[in-house]
Design a protein that fits this description.
elongated, repeat, binds zinc ion, alpha/beta, single chain, 8 helices, UCP006404_Pept_M50_CBS, 3-stranded mixed sheet
């Protein structure tokens, strides 16, 4: 059986490949069909233009992030456009809170600028400004629709739900005061509280499945990014030798015979996932052929705590010298 391709490349802009998720076409089809039901072909065309305007707004929002990120030397190979929004896949997320703040704010800012500019063109709002006929083929109506799209997109993204923009802003602000990992953890917990409230509301106001799918997607994304941050913050830059604890029994202790030996110079992040699944294990560690102690998984946490302090101290001194 041929594997289904979920996304297709559309074009390149500023060297970034823009991919369209196949479900976007489903949404387009559904919307055009509804437009056709309402006002025949004029309605279908209005729906089509409306979706293209929304799609462009999403793309410009993502470009706001990407072009700001580029000023920090961060590349974006790909932007994926989905019915629930866009996703800029950057090579990495900056650890510096100020950089993350600027990159993140740039997205919603684009939406507010678009809304503001259209507002000036469309003119002063009258009493019926917020009344929009969804499938009316009329420039004024489509402009108003785009204003509403952009205001909604900008505001929704600012909800403090990590890893959405608002959640990233919260993490960056917390990271200015607290440890980076703690900041990420608080942001992830906050997101989960908001998601539970959001899903409850979505269920109460009729079964809004797209909304629930969106929240599930954000929950999974947030948890994955938190785990990634946790891993990097805990283990990156450390070696096996950094978490060795002394072992009085020596290398021939029968307690060690079931565990493979490790070299002190090996990077910790490669083995950490394995250690985390073994609550009680003793790996003999050798340096230059000499037994220097064990990695005791039960005591890994406290050994790690000390090792991290030394590493972070070294990073601080490095920065001071730079
Ligand atoms: Zn964004």
């Amino acid at each position: 059986m041929k594997k289904i391709r979920w996304s297709y490349p559309l074009f390149r802009i500023f060297g970034i490949r823009v991919d369209l998720h196949i479900t976007f076409l489903l949404l387009l089809g559904l919307f055009c069909w509804e437009g056709h039901q309402a006002h025949q072909w004029a309605g279908a065309l209005a729906a089509f233009i409306g979706i293209i305007l929304a799609f462009t707004s999403v793309l410009l929002h993502e470009l706001g992030h990407c072009l700001t990120a580029a000023t920090y030397g961060i590349k974006t190979p790909r932007i994926l456009l989905m019915p629930i929004g866009g996703m800029a896949q950057m090579t990495h997320i900056p650890r510096d809170p100020n950089a993350e703040l600027k990159i993140t704010l740039a997205g919603p800012l684009v939406n507010f600028v678009i809304a503001g500019l259209l507002f000036l063109i469309v003119g002063a709002p009258d009493m019926r400004f917020w009344y929009i006929e969804l499938f009316s083929l009329n420039a004024m109506n489509l402009a108003r629709l785009t204003i509403v799209w952009n205001l909604t997109m900008g505001l929704f993204n600012l909800l403090p739900v990590f890893p959405m923009d608002g959640g990233r802003i919260l993490r960056a602000l917390l990271a200015k005061r607290f440890d980076y990992l703690d900041a990420t953890r608080i942001a992830t917990y906050t997101a989960k509280v908001f998601i539970v409230i959001g899903v409850s509301l979505a269920l109460m106001w009729g079964e809004n499945y797209l909304m629930i799918a969106l929240f599930a997607f954000i929950w999974i994304g947030g948890e994955a990014e938190y785990q990634q941050v946790r891993f990097l913050e805990n283990y990156a830059g450390l070696t096996i030798g950094d978490v060795v604890t002394p072992w009085a029994g020596g290398p021939n202790d029968p307690a060690l015979k079931n565990w493979p030996s490790l070299s002190a110079t090996w990077p910790l992040e490669v083995y950490a996932r394995h250690f985390e699944t073994k609550p009680e294990a003793f790996y003999p560690v050798y340096h230059d052929g000499k037994f220097i102690g064990v990695v005791d998984t039960a005591r890994l946490k406290s050994a790690l705590h000390v090792a991290k302090q030394h590493r972070n101290e070294a990073i601080r001194q490095d920065k001071g010298n730079a």
